[in-house]
Amino acid sequence: MKILKYVLYAIIALVILFFAMGFMNPFVKYGHSITVDKPIKEAWAVMQDASKFEQWLAGFKSIELISGEEGAVGSKYKVIVKPSEEEDDFEMIQTITSLNEFDHVTLDFDSDFMDFVQTTSFEEKDGTTKITTDSKVIGKSIISRAMFAIMEKLGRAFTTQEAENIENLKKVIEENTTDYYPTIKVVEDEVVEDLINGN
Q1: Which domains does the chain have, with CATH numbers?
Q2: Are strands 128-139 and 28-36 parallel, antiparallel or unpaired?
Q3: C-alpha distances out from residue 115 to 31, 38, 71, 141, 153, Å
Q4: pLDDT for 161-197, tens place per residue?
Q5: Is this prediction's pTM over 0.85?
Q6: How many whole angstroms separate alpha carbon 89 and alpha carbon 175?
Q7: End-to-end CA distance of the chain, in Å?
């Protein structure tokens, strides 16, 4: 009987500790920084290119504009992700809450069990670009807050995933061959005249 009593006490203590983690850690903050050997305009364009998201965002499946103007503050998107093969797809609503081209973008992701806010900042120096993320995940229940806190404290789950994504972004940017800012060739006046005259 004494053993059962001690086991019960241990279970109660663990339950109390679990919920205490949620109360003491209402959110988890983390981030990562990289420097890419590309100018800031190209680095920015690659990161904003939805056709490349799956190359650097783990679990990304799709993104769809549902309201507002594409790429504008206040615009909302439906984002579908699949965290792992064992987990089902889940949906988040992404809102652009702040954006200053070539400087920063702040995104808010809302789902049933969490709110995730991420600011990505850009800084150019001597032809290279430093990209820094500042992220915060907030559980919508005491249970999810406790789970997130334990995941981060024991295995640095959020920090590790962020680092993996941003290091993948570095690779995608540095291997980019897409010309996002093609130059317009100047045509000589006489050539224009020949074209007008049908010559």
Answers
A1: 2-59+114-181 (3.30.530)
A2: antiparallel
A3: 16, 32, 20, 11, 19
A4: 999 999 999 999 999 999 998 887 555 555 555 555 6
A5: no
A6: 29
A7: 104
Q: Classify 103 as helix, strand or coil.
A: coil
Does residue 107 contact residue 96 with C-beta atoms inside 8 Å? yes
Chain centre distance of CA 46: 13
Reference 34, options 130, 125, 142; nearest CA is 130
Residue 117 amino acid letter? V
DSSP tag of 101:
T
The gap from C-alpha 158 to its chain's centroid, in whole angstroms, comes to 11
CB distance 67 to 75 below 8 Å: yes
Place of tokens 């998107």: 77
Q: Do the Cβ atoms of 117 and 136 come closer than 8 Å? A: yes
**How much is the pLDDT for 41?**
96
56 in Cβ contact with 40 (< 8 Å): no
Instruction: Tell me if 21 sits within 8 A of 132, measured CB to CB.
Output: no
